[in-house]
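Data card: per-record layout.
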Amino acid sequence: MLRGEYQNTLRCGNQLIELTNPLIMGIVNATPDSFYASSRADGAVETALGMARRMLSDGAAILDIGGMSTRPGAKEISVNEEIARVVPVIEAIHAHFPEVIISVDTYRAIVAEESIKAGATMVNDVSGGQLDDRMFKVVADRQVAYVMMHLRGTPETMHQYTDYKDVIADLLKYFVNRLQIARQAGVTEIILDPGFGFAKTMEQNYELIARLDSFRLLNRPLLVGVSRKSTLSKTIGRPAEETLEATTALHMVALQNGASILRVHDVLPAKDTIAVFNKIRSVDLHNNKRIGQI
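The structure for this 294-residue chain is written out next.
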C-alpha cells in the first residue's frame, strides 16, 4: 500500500521542512525516569549534546526534548522542574546545531513558551491541547509546528480509558474536533499522532498501525511513536532493551500505511528502514507507471 497524499512541506518557525520522504525524530529525554534508560540524558547538558550529535550524524531531522516522563502511570513534576530540565538542553542544542528542528515534548503551555524562546520550533503535545487551555494560543502566537496526539485522561490515569466503540472511528472524531479548535485558535502547521500506547490496549495499538491509512482522510502528516514501547515487549516476551528488531518491523508497516515521521530511540536503524521503504516505493511507482502505459 502506498503512503497517503499529505502536504509536502511543514513550516517550523522560519524553517520549511520537506515531507516528501519520511523523516526521523530522535528522542532525547532530560529525565531520570523515562521507560527506556538509554534515552535519558537525566539533566546533564553534555550528555544530551552527545546524544544529539550522534542522532544528527545518524540521520535525524528533528530532535524531541522531553523533561517529564509520560510513560503509563508516570507522576507529574512541577512546572519549574520541567523547565529547568528542558530549557538548558534546548539552548545548548540550538547553540551547537542551529539548523536542527528542535521539538519540546510537553503538554504545558508555559514550558512550551520557554522552550520556544530557547530555540524550539515544534511542540509535541501528548494531550492534543486538552490539558492546558493556553497551549494553542502559545503555538499560534509563536507560529511553530504542533504535534497533536490522541490521549484520554492523563499519563497517570490513561490506562483506565481504553473502552472504545471503534478505536479508529473514535480517534477520527477526536482529531476532527481538536483540529477545528486548533485552527480557530490560529494553529496551522499540525502533525497528527494517534498515540500508540496512550490509553490503548495491546490489540488497539496494533489496530492503529494496521489501519493507519484511515487517517489520510484528515490530510495531515502522521507521526508514529512506537519505538521500544511495552506492547512490543509483551509481544516478544523480552524487555525494552531487546525490542529493536520488533520496533523496526513495526516501523516498516507504519511507513507502508502512511507515516511521515518516525519518533525513535535508535536513529540509524530507522534511517535504514526508510531507505528500504523508499526503494520499495520507487519500484511500486515504476511498475504502476509501466502498467499504465500498456
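Known properties of this structure: The chain has a mean pLDDT of 90. The chain has one domain: 9-293.

See the next section for split statistics.
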